[in-house]
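Thread: quick sanity check before group meeting

JM: Hey all, I'm pulling together slides for Thursday and realized we never actually wrote out the predicted structure for the chain we discussed last week. Dropping the sequence here so it's in one place. If anyone has concerns about the input, flag it before I start.
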Amino acid sequence: MRIKQYNYFSHKQDYMRHLVPLFACILLGLIFIFSEQHVIAQEPFNLSPGKKITLTDAAFSLGSAKLEASQKQVFTLLVDYLTKRSLLNIEIGGHADNQGNEVQNTALSLQRAESVRAFLVENGIAASRIRTRGYGAQFPIADNATQDGRTKNRRVEIIGLSALTGKLLVSPDGKPLPPEARISAVKPSVQVKSAWEEDWREARMNEELYEAFRLNTSENAWLDITFRNNSVLHLSENATMFVYGFEAASRLASLNGADGKPKAETLKNIELAKGNLMLKLREMKAQDTFSVRTKNSHIGFNSASAQASAKVKVDGKERSIISVLQGRANVQVLNDDPRAGQNLDVGEDFGVVVGGAGTGDNLTAQGIVPLPRKPELLEPEERIAPNANPTPFRWNNGGYTTRLEVASNAEFSEFVHNAIHQNGEANVLLPEGTYFVRLTNIDSIGFESQASLRALVVSSGVPKKAPEHPFHFRILEFLLLVAGGASIWGSFLFQNPRLRWIGAVCVVIGLGMLLLL
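JM (edit): ok, ran it. Output follows.
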């Protein structure tokens, strides 16, 4: 009997020949599944300005609005994303290619958007946070002349909305919504949180800000925000503020409640929980309003003045201390105050305290009171020579406490000196350079005056000022000149040459002291 010899290598080649196609099919299947999941919704989700979530045609049954069961895990992740961002509202927009009946395509695009909305609502997302649109073939993202392009155009896009005015955070052509404001100056540590972010993070210089962003400043930190119309907000240390946006109140004032009156919650641009806020409102138009909300007050500014400035402080007793520096303000008293429900008209250079009825200090009984007068800077002059010793500052504070700020830039973001002084003097060491000085009086309640401002140049090109002689030294010079003149006159009168010499010596000494010293 002939025994067939086993050839390992030939059999191995046969196995490999059969297994290679099998492995290839498995690999292609995995690639298909993986790519399908990630084309439907890109991870991680991001609905910040300029970003959107795109659900492809594969998320739905062929030619219908029914969600594919295999894709519901992606939608569950979207539910979790929106749940962690309760202030973020969205638009779900359906899109189609240009094939077939336009009316039917538009209807199907809307139905697909509604299907996604229904899934989100069923899983706990408030229906009020979602709006749907059926755009049909209006906004293609690829060429409808190719099959691949038409597939890309059949999609559903999820886009974030601005919190109050409901504007899309990204336009159909992919451009982000213009920001409400930007961070123009910051001293860390300042935390910021937007509607589309889950956690707080460090604020960045020149960062763009949109409707509904929150801000927290820590000890010794502060922040400046500049709006599109050049209005500026300065938030001091240990403060908490919620900024809705500059246009929010005026644009939503027409949205009335059931009683026909404007909804109070739509008429605020800023909500100050604690700390100090300085407002410099600029370029206000006739239709503009601006309002600050605190626990006990609602402070409104309107077009009575094209510019307005005010300081608002919420102290440790949750009282609102309001100082109007420019323009006028209407202060609505909300609660914790005997005047609750009243509107107070606070004019320029006046202030009022609202709230704190149970604190026992009865500040609300004072009503609207004048602000402290502006301090007057007496020295130094605008240009001085450098000195190794600290430069003396003196001012007339009128008996108030004064905040002296000396900075190396006009924005007062880089301080050389920043302190509160009880008396009217301080010494500050100033190297050669240009400085900016700001003085503000503060009374015992916390009202603040208008600020006195001055630029100061410390330069070696400035000649040192000759020292001033005391008054009694100038009297001696005068007496020498008088004695010399009298002696010379007496020498002629009495024919005494000695008096003439005495008089000449007195005159020379007096003139020398006057001219040289």
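AS: nice. Residues 8-40 form the longest helix (33 residues). Helices lie at 8-40, 72-83, 102-122, 147-153, 248-252, 471-494, 497-516.
JM: adding both to the slides.
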